[in-house]
Amino acid sequence: MKLFLTTTFLIFFTTLLPLNANGAKCHVDDESSLLGFKSSIKSDPSSMLKSWISGTDCCTWAGVGCIFDNKRVSSLSLSGDLENPKSYLSGTISPSLSKLQYLDGLYLQNLQNISGPFPDSLFKIPNLQFIYIENNKLSGQIPENIGKMTKLGALSLEGNRFTGTIPSSISELTQLTQLKLGNNFLTGTIPELIKNLKNLTFLSLKGNQLSGNIPDFFSSFTNLRILELSNNKFSGKIPPSISSLFSNLMYLELGHNSLSGKIPDFLGKFKALDTLDLSKNQFSGTVPKSFANLTKIFNLDLSDNFLVDPFPLMNVKGIESLDLSRNMFHLKEIPKWVTSSPIIFSLKLANCGIKMKLDDWKPLETYFYDFIDLSGNEISGSVVGLLNKTEYLVEFLGSENLLKFDLESLRFGNRLKSLDLSHNLVFGKVTKSVVGIQKLNVSYNHLCGEIPKNSFDASVFVGNNCLCGPPLYPCKA
Q1: Cα separations (Å) of 240 from 210, 264, 300, 381?
Q2: C-alpha neighbours within 13 Å on the C-beta side of residue 462
Q3: For the segment 293-314, what is each residue's pLDDT rounded down to a tens digit?
Q4: Distance of CA 444 to the CA centre of its chain
Q5: What residues contact residue 286 under an 8 Å CB cut-off, 6+ apart?
Q6: Which backbone phi and psi does 120 adopt, to 5 degrees?
Q7: pLDDT at position 288, please?
Q8: Does the CA dihedral 263-252-138-119 come out positive or negative?
Q9: Per residue in 194-224, is it b (16+ CB within 10 Å) or e — as a string?
Q10: Mean pLDDT across the stretch 272-292?
Q11: How would you describe this protein's topology in the membrane (predicted)?
Q12: What's the confidence (pLDDT) of residue 14?
């Protein structure tokens, strides 16, 4: 009896095995769809799609996600590394994706060389909620009927080559929480009907060629946290309705446009503001005193405008990045709220009317500085005490000052790539460590001696007392 039961069990179990094995494979439509996508990829240098083999379970393939209970493909996520060209894919997006009827998320990010128009096949996927096709080479116009994809919660096409205007039908995607169309070649104005997207938390149209006034419709976006409109051709003033975002907005980026007028006083009410970029516009007048209330701001860029004194006393607890360069300020010294910051990594105060001895500046933190630009001021003294305390410094720009020190006393960190000390009073010799820097300018100082072997142009060394050797004239015997 035991033998009969054991044999019966073995027969039953072995009969089930092929059924379970077949059951583990994904749906035939999903497999053919994904293999169709793979066939449209012409170059895969990192073998990203190596695991995509016919007859195997496509739910285990790289980048493929499935619904657990019915083994249907629900997401496709392929991502490259922008610093590693071997991780890029070349090819097009196959129309076969339309067979992925359970797909709710498509993420094709940083693959760089995926080309072609916006894939019409996506219109045939009924439950698609998330589209992130970022940093590729899709081109042509964004489809005028994009508004038919009404279930979308996020649409990001940033970093492609789309042209034309923003389709007005995009305003019908009322479920969107993220709309990112930045870094394309879009033209025209922002459609007024975008105000219908009341659920937006993230709106990015930066890096295009959009023009006209920024619409005054932001009172519709009560949940907006990130607004990126920089690097366009917008003109006019900052619209008053932006003031309605004061409770939630964390990032406001309007830099590199042609905006004008005064900086609105209401910006000082944005207590959640992390980043404010108004650089390279035509703002005039003074910076509002209300900026003293921006105690949580980490990144402030007001550079390249027509702003005048006095600059308000701010109560920032820990600024990370500050750029006030090339306005009409006469700061006289580096602000105390900058000096006391424990986390600052970027300080740019070029042409800010600073008249101080650098040896007297005692910042709380120097170790983490990445970028320092103090050029075009009347700063005297030595940079040795500052630069020799930095470990992560990538760039120091100190041209057109009154700096006076021995160049040989500088210690250069491994990360330093750019050094400009031109038009100062620097003396001593040019050391081998200096010529190892990628970008260098020590012209118009009081340096002397033979220049170590280098690959720089003569303009890097001209205007010194007695430097010689290539690329200048030969040294005398």
Answers
A1: 20, 8, 20, 46
A2: 3
A3: 999 999 999 999 999 999 999 9
A4: 36
A5: 262, 307, 308, 309, 310, 311, 312
A6: -60, -25
A7: 97
A8: negative
A9: bbbbebbbbbbbbbbebeeebeebbeebeeb
A10: 97
A11: Single-pass type I membrane protein
A12: 31
Residue 139 CB coordination number (10 Å): 15
Decide: residue 458, CB within 10 A, 0-12 exposed, 13-18 middle, 19+ buried.
exposed
* Confidence at residue 389, expressed as pLDDT on a 0 to 100 scale: 87
**Residue 318: predicted pLDDT:** 87
| Residue 253, beta-bridge partner list | 228, 277
Question: Which of the four pLDDT bands, split at 50, 70 and 90, describes residue 26?
Answer: confident
Domain boundaries, the chain: 330-342+356-477
Distance from C-alpha of 362 to C-alpha of 288, rounded to nearest angstrom: 28
Contact predicate 182/203, CB 8 Å = no
Residue 182: pLDDT over 90: yes
Cβ-contact 165, 192 below 8 angstroms: no
- Identify the DSSP state of 301: E
Residues 6+ apart with CB under 8 A from 140: 117, 118, 162, 163, 164
Report whether pLDDT(246) > 70: yes
In single-letter form, the type of residue at position 4 comes to F
Residue 130: what pLDDT? 98
The most distant pair of C-alpha atoms in the chain lies apart, rounded to whole Å, by 110
More confident residue, 389 or 200: 200
Three-class SS state of 180: strand
Distance CA 15, CA 322 (A): 71
Q: Which two tokens stand for residue 324?
A: 């006030």
Calculate the alpha carbon distances from 22 to 32, 68, 69, 242 in Å.
16, 15, 15, 57
User: Could you report how far apart the first and last alpha carbons of the chain are, in Å?
Assistant: 110
5 has pLDDT over 90? no
Instruction: Please write the tens of the pLDDT for every residue from 121-157.
Output: 999 999 999 999 999 999 999 999 999 999 999 999 9
- Would you identify the CATH topology of the domain 330-342+356-477? 3.80.10
CA 232 – CA 230 distance, rounded (Å): 6
For residue 5, give the 3-state DSSP assignment: helix
Strands in 51-104 per DSSP E: 64-66, 73-79, 89-92
What is the model's pTM? 0.91
Residue 448 in tokens: 């002397």
271 token code pair: 């207590």
Evaluate whether 204 touches 194 at the Cβ level (below 8 Å). Answer: no
- 403/425 Cα distance (integer angstroms): 6
Taking the C-alpha atoms of residue 233 and residue 79, their distance in angstroms, rounded to an integer, is 31
